[in-house]
């Protein structure tokens, strides 16, 4: 997301979704987010002097604001957020943000400020206004699960000061309608402040946390910028886009920013590495994820011979494929179920579940050749997801399991996070062993779990196997 367009993905496996913060240097893959808005202020209607006896005219009906007017109104509240090397003033990444209080509180994405939050001895944060004014920033509060951060301008005025211009949030009692025009603001590709016009398309389907589907183009550098309605009120925060489609982008609903501001308005600045804060929030996430995943159960009739654990589509998407052999060899059918949601925690993402199963038919091979191919497929799996500086080597245990007379070979692996204590990645690999020329192999992966919930999910997955009813 923030510091590497390829490393941080919001929608992996289905299609790459890049966050919109921009690393140092040009990002050739990112398309332009559209023309920069004019910086000419919107002209106001002149009002003639009224005589003492002349009644005041009825107020004119409110007009929908154009993209130009929205930008003109929000320009003084819009910011570029820069992460800079401490003592060198060289920027390592840039994103966007916006003022939400006259006291200097600012909302942006967590992934925009992650380097400074996790490595404060190495990085500082500064903001730059549309007219070029630059000042340092402090981090007050983080919402890692919704990819938000609350900052405060270090040069905020005192109680007697004039204060900053601030954007207002749209009231929850005024929901947006499908197709309503909204405007995303930010600093795309570090080339200047801009506004992109698009449409509100409701919430993303099957997302673990609510996200707004914005029908507009967003680009790197716009992460953390506001999305406004036609009255200039904040409805969302720019966060990501799909690169395999046109005009498919995503916003964090403004309600989460409102809650973050209320929770952290008077908080002391975070000055030490925020790993403990990140770990505590991931603990909340994995508890909710485990409960919801087990509660949703498994689909029925997933195989003619076996019960194979395939999750329902509540917050995951399942995709199937078939690969018949062209040379009289092994026929394969495959199902992949993945979550769109990933929790960005700095150098990697976590907090997701995936389930895969493969059905093999080796009747054209014969028993011996099938056994060799089937065993090779099982052994070829890797359980190392992150580099050793982030995670320990996987510790695995292999055993044979009987599921109501169905013999299974099972491998369970755990890897621990080095800087997120008491959190683990779980992998479970399973193969059926009752047939000599056919079988099913399955894999379950869950990231960022407590040890107790890793055990619970491993058991739940293994219990999903059995004979077809």
Characterize the structure shown.
There is one protein chain. With about 475 residues, this protein is an alpha+beta fold. It folds into 2 domains: about 15-25 and about 65-270, Thrombin, subunit H (Beta Barrel); about 280-465, no CATH class. The protein contains 6 helices and 25 strands. It has helices at about 65-75, 110-120, 255-265, 275-295, 365-380, 450-465, and strands spanning about 15-20, 20-25, 80-85, 90-100, 105-110, 125-130, 135-145, 150-155, 180-185, 195-205, 210-215, 225-230, 235-240, 250-255, 305, 315-325, 330-340, 345, 350, 355-360, 395-405, 405-415, 425-430, 440-450, 465. Helix 4 (about 275-295) packs parallel to helix 6. The longest helix has 22 residues, at about 275-295.
The CATH topology annotation of the largest domain reads as: Thrombin, subunit H
Task: State the low-pLDDT regions, or none.
Answer: 1-18, 24-54, 60-64
Q: Which of globular, elongated, flat, extended, rod-shaped describes the shape?
A: elongated
What Rg do the Cα atoms give?
A: 26 Å
Strand order of the largest sheet: 16-17-20-24-23-22-21
The helicity comes to 10-25%
Question: Roughly how many Å apart are the termini?
Answer: 45 Å
The CATH architecture term of the largest domain is Beta Barrel
- State mean pLDDT (0 to 100 scale): 86
CATH class of the largest domain: Mainly Beta
In this structure, how is the largest beta sheet organized? Answer: 7 strands, antiparallel
How much of the residues is beta strand, in percent?
A: 25-35%
Number of strands: 25
Helix/strand class: alpha+beta
Count of alpha/pi helices: 6
How many domains? The number is 2
């Amino acid at each position: 997301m923030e510091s590497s367009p390829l490393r941080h993905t919001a929608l992996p496996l289905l299609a790459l979704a890049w966050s919109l913060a921009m690393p140092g240097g040009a990002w050739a893959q990112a398309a332009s987010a559209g023309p920069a808005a004019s910086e000419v202020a919107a002209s106001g209607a002149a009002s003639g002097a009224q005589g003492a006896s002349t009644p005041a005219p009825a107020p004119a009906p409110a007009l929908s604001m154009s993209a130009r007017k929205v930008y003109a109104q929000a320009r003084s509240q819009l910011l570029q957020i820069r992460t800079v090397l401490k003592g060198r003033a060289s920027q390592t990444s840039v994103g966007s943000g916006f003022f939400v209080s006259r006291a200097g509180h600012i909302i942006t994405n967590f992934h925009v400020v992650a380097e400074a939050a996790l490595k404060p001895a190495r990085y500082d944060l500064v903001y730059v206004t549309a007219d070029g004014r630059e000042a340092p920033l402090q981090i007050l509060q983080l919402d890692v699960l919704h990819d938000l951060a609350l900052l405060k301008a270090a040069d905020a005025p005192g109680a007697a000061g004039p204060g900053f211009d601030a954007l207002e949030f749209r009231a929850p009692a005024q929901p947006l309608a499908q197709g309503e025009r909204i405007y995303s603001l930010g600093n795309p590709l570090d080339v200047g402040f801009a506004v992109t016009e698009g449409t509100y398309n409701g919430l993303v389907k099957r997302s673990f946390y609510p996200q707004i589907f914005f029908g507009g183009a967003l680009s790197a550098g716009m992460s953390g910028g506001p999305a406004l309605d036609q009255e200039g009120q904040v409805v969302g925060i720019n966060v990501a886009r799909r690169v395999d489609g046109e005009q498919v982008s995503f916003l964090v609903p403004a309600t989460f920013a409102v809650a973050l501001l209320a929770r952290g308005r008077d908080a002391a600045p975070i000055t030490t590495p925020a790993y403990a804060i990140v770990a505590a929030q991931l603990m909340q996430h994995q508890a909710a994820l485990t409960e919801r995943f087990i509660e949703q159960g498994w689909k029925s009739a997933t195989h003619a011979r076996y019960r194979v654990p395939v999750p329902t589509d509540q917050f995951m998407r399942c995709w199937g494929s078939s690969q018949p052999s062209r040379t009289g060899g092994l026929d394969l059918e495959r199902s992949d179920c993945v979550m769109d949601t990933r929790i960005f925690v700095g150098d990697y993402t976590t907090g997701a579940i995936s389930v895969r199963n493969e059905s093999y038919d080796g009747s054209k091979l014969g028993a011996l050749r099938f056994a060799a191919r089937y065993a090779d497929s099982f052994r070829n799996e890797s359980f190392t997801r992150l580099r050793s500086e982030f995670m320990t080597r996987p510790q695995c245990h292999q055993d044979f399991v009987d599921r109501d007379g169905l013999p299974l070979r099972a491998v369970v692996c755990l890897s621990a996070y080095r800087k997120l204590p008491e959190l683990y990645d779980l992998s479970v690999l399973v193969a059926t062993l009752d047939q000599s020329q056919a079988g099913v192999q399955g894999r379950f992966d869950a990231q960022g779990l407590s040890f107790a919930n890793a055990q619970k999910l491993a058991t739940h997955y293994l219990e999903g196997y059995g004979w077809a009813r």
